[in-house]
């Protein structure tokens, strides 16, 4: 009987030691997570809200100081505001919203609509405004048809070279909270 007790105590002790020694993931769960997004017509907003809701992350909207009108968004007009901004990679339209304490976040999911194959200039303003060194940025996007965030991923890496910018993902605007949770779960 005593022998059995010793065996049980030994097993409990070994399991305890293994639990302590278990290698932690590079992003141990418990890191604070932010879902930051820009959305001109609501599609990306819906995805961002579902992603934040499904993961328990904080949600932050990148709000341009001057909101985009339908005329501003006219991609057929090469003189529209969006066409002019997107024609200049150094364009940094002013933003009206600020993340309170960016230092607390280790992981930032960054959402946007694909404009001209990449992230809108106002997202570049957001990226230029904070110190992202040591943080992980995971882009996500909605689009009419562009299938990936590849061009955006590359641009983002150039703007924040000290961040770990992972391969992003384009979602249909009706992607479910469950699907988003599964996708994000890889890093949380
Ligand atoms: C100025 C502008 C440029 C766009 N360029 C692209 C593009 O290059 N590829 C694409 O698939 N969709 C493009 N779209 C469509 C948007 O990516 C798509 O409608 C997106 O879901 C809008 O997201 P939002 O509602 O969050 O703003 C563009 C839309 C606008 C307004």
Radius of gyration: 21 Å
**Element order: H for helix, E for strand:** HEHEHEHEHEEH
Q: How helical, in percent, are the residues?
A: 25-40%
Biggest sheet features: 6 strands, parallel
* Count of discrete structural domains: 1
Give a description of the structure.
This protein is α/β, with parallel strands linked by helices and 188 residues long. The chain has a single domain (27-184), classed as Rossmann fold (3-Layer(aba) Sandwich), CATH 3.40.50. It is 35% helix and 16% strand. Strands 1, 2, 3, 4, 5 and 6 form a 6-stranded parallel beta sheet that branches. The protein starts with a helix and ends with a helix. The structure holds flavin mononucleotide (FMN). Flavin mononucleotide is lined by residues 39-45, 73, 75, 82, 113-117, 142-146, 173. Flavin mononucleotide (FMN) is lined by residues 39-45, 73, 75, 82, 113-117, 142-146, 173.
Chart the SSEs and their pairings.
Layout: H1 2-21, E1 32-37, H2 43-55, E2 58-61, H3 81-86, E3 105-113, H4 121-128, E4 136-142, H5 150-159, E5 164-165, E6 169-170, H6 177-184
Parallel strand pairs: 1-2, 1-3, 3-4, 4-5, 4-6
Helix pairs in contact: 2-6
Bound molecules: flavin mononucleotide.
Keywords:
188 residues; alpha/beta; Rossmann fold; six-stranded parallel β-sheet; 6 helices; 35% helix; binds flavin mononucleotide
What would you say about this model in short?
By secondary structure, this protein is an alpha/beta fold.
């Amino acid at each position: 009987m005593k022998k059995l007790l010793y065996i049980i105590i030994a097993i409990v002790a070994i399991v305890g030691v293994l639990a302590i020694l278990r290698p932690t993931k590079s992003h141990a769960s418990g890191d604070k997570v932010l879902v930051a997004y820009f959305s001109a017509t609501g599609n990306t907003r819906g995805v961002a809200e579902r992603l934040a809701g499904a993961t328990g992350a904080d949600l932050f909207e990148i709000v341009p100081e001057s909101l985009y009108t339908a005329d501003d968004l006219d991609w057929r007009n090469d003189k529209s505001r969006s066409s002019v901004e997107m024609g200049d990679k150094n364009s940094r339209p002013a933003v009206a919203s600020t993340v309170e304490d960016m230092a607390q976040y280790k992981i930032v999911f960054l959402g946007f609509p694909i404009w001209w194959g990449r992230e809108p200039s106002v997202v570049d303003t957001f990226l230029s405004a904070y110190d992202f060194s040591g943080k992980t940025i995971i882009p996500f996007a909605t689009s009419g048809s562009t299938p990936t965030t590849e061009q955006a991923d590359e641009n983002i890496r150039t703007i924040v070279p000290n961040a770990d910018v992972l391969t992003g993902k384009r979602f249909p605007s009706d992607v479910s909270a469950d699907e988003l949770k599964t996708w994000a779960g890889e890093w949380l």
